[in-house]
Amino acid sequence: MQKQPDGRTPELKKCRVLGPMASIFTSANTGSFRIERPVVDYDKCIKCGICARNCPGNIIEIKKEQKECVEIDYYYCKGCGICANECPQKAIAMVRERGEH
Amino acid sequence: MAYKMLDGNAAAVEAMVLARVKVISAYPITPQSYIAEKLADLVAKGVLDAEYIRVESEHTAMTAATTAQLTGVRAATATSSVGLALMHEVLGMTAGIRMPVVMPVVNRALLSPWSLWCDHSDTMDERDSGWMQFYCQDVQDIIDLMLVAYKTAEHDQVLLPAMVCFDGFFLSHSMQKVDVPEQELVDNFLGEYKRKNLYLDTSDPMFVNDLTPPEDYTEFKYQMKVAMDNALQVAPEVMAEFERSFGRKLSIIEEFQTADADVVLVTLGSMSGTAKQTVLRLREKGLKVGLLRIVLYRPFPFKQIREALKNVKVVGVLDRSSGLGLPGGPVWVEVSCALSGCGAVVKPYIGGLGGRDVPESTIEKIFNELLAIKNQETETHTSWIDTKANAMDIREVLKVV
Amino acid sequence: MLNLKFFGTGGQGVVTAAKIFSTAVSLYEDKYAKTVPAYGHERRNAPVFTDVIMADEPILVNSFVYHPDLVLVMDASIIDKNVDPGAGKHDGTILVLNSENPETLERYKQYGFKEFYYVDGTGIAVETTGVGIPNGSMLGALAATGIVKIESIEKAILDFFSKKAGEKNAEAARRAYARIKKM
Q1: Rounded to whole angstroms, how far apart are CA atoms C163 and A18?
Q2: How many domains does chain B contain in total?
Q3: Looking at chain B, which residue has its C-alpha nearest residue A12?
């Protein structure tokens, strides 16, 4: 069994392993799939949190104390647009991520 | 002639539709999924008059297809890789109760490492299951060998199921120009499916696949052995009839520039096409190389291979599965056995695993080595022909000391 | 025999373009073509490629293209995503690029292709179909190199799409065929 770290930063050493494995998940940046990005219009937003509850990636957080209360983690957001569709205020626009030249 | 552009999966579907299958039970798996989906689509649209059974696994897919065929219709299913492995138990039943089910198998590597891509380890693991196995070189072959497989499997002297194996992605997803036969010609060639031997009929019940005591088990297996022997006679006859009906020549082994060859490579599947192109190119340089392609791998054409290669000094066999624990893969073992006593040196090669391409350069490397061995210029033999030099060191990770 | 390599990014219809091209050559020009698709971990926006082999006779090879005679780049951004469109090229290799951006053209010039065709296929796609999917227009661009007739491409496009989308994409192909420039 792997030795447990004792609270201090464990000492790491490069070791050869046999067999398929990965220690870094290179496909984690699902935000790179995105073609359109959700952008919130805070003049319309009523902080209801429906966008966060419907996000299939669970990457929207509502911070009610802030004016710009919808925090979207764009590292993971795939741009599916479900938040924009579900928003009762139509306060979320899907904006093109990059111009195709 | 009616040419169509089809990928391998679509060609397999065409063949099943042309054979007028009446029951389908297929479970989707990459790279076979299109077959399961397209058949469902055709049934839903009313284009194909068949019953589609939605199953929860390949184990059930094969059980349903086999038992459906017992009622007296052609049944269809298709699979790949771990799906075929999950069918393993039932494959033996299908063969043992002598149901001539024809199944396209899209070749994909078995785990581990997990792979979606082509090699022959899935079907090689089923080589002794009592199923016949045909291996396709291109998309045209898939339609042609499927039709040949139906007729051979359903022959009175055979009555064994057949897999028509074709390489994942390299054929399943390669779109090629295909001559699709007319329905009427196929109807004449295959004839209507008639139940023979065992069947399920509520008005005339029988108990199929019952527990068999040691007194009879060997004899039932012997019957299957005789059927396999017969298939070696029947398949070439069916192929000759196919040529008369459809104009394309097929054979259970294919000899390509072997007559005067100094060295011959043995292959099966899609890499055979690339190997033929390599042979043509090396012949232009004056090198006497040849190729033997195995089309029908089960039953294994023992005598035909021996006859074809008996005078060749050096033979290489390129297996697309790893044959772990032996110096070479299963095809090498069997070709070596077929050539025992002929005086030929038979060298094993392993390549094209888990989706690795088998380009002309790999084939050329093998031919060069075989020629060097033949001319006694080298003792070197690189059995794992396309393996990276740093094979033992491809993963390094940070670990807690 | 002619070996082609199509580069692009996931979602652009690169694989479909290869299928349409093969159909145009095989069914409407009495030649033979096959696609050799490379499937991986498909993701939108990630670089993808697919190969096509065409010839006057049936093709034996079932292997990827390593030395292309023609390279089609449907998304110029691939060179910023660790893709080398010049890999394996020879003295006569032709490039067809989806871009008219001067900076981009300058960067692609560095690869030293023998012939260099370019057109804003995405722009043409937007003006004809309303969507920036450039496979229809870039097939028209391919016809401009002379390896396939524009009429064959149009017929094959109509085979692949519904009537309305087919006509729009065929129009995109015609416009790219007409507007393409050669450096």
Answers
A1: 54
A2: 2
A3: B400
